[in-house]
Amino acid sequence: MGSAVKISDNLAHKAKLRSKVEKRSFAGQIEYWASIGEIVEENPDLPFAFIKNILIGKEQAQSGLLTPYVFGEGD
Question: 3-class DSSP state for residue 6?
Fold first, then answer.
């Protein structure tokens, strides 16, 4: 069940713009920012790009898109 939350007009405007660029709903954009903020607070030593790559890797793993790494093969 959802909850109504008041946010500033400035944040709402930024979220609406970004949601169009990222192909998310307005609520989805706010939820994305909140989840990233939570992860960053829990892991202050990790750069955002590293966190984002971890999240992408998790989604790839859950979607079955990963292949096992074989030591000694590749570049």
Answer: coil
Domain residue ranges in the chain: 9-62
* 12-59 residue pLDDT tens: 999 999 999 999 999 999 999 999 999 999 999 999 999 999 999 999
CA distance 50 to 70: 23
Q: Is the pTM of this model over 0.85?
A: no
Cα separation, 66 vs 71, whole angstroms: 15
7 φψ region: left (φ > 0), alpha (ψ -120 to 50), beta (else): beta
- Cα torsion angle, 1, 35, 5, 10, sign: negative
Distance, CA of 28 to CA of 15 (rounded, Å): 9
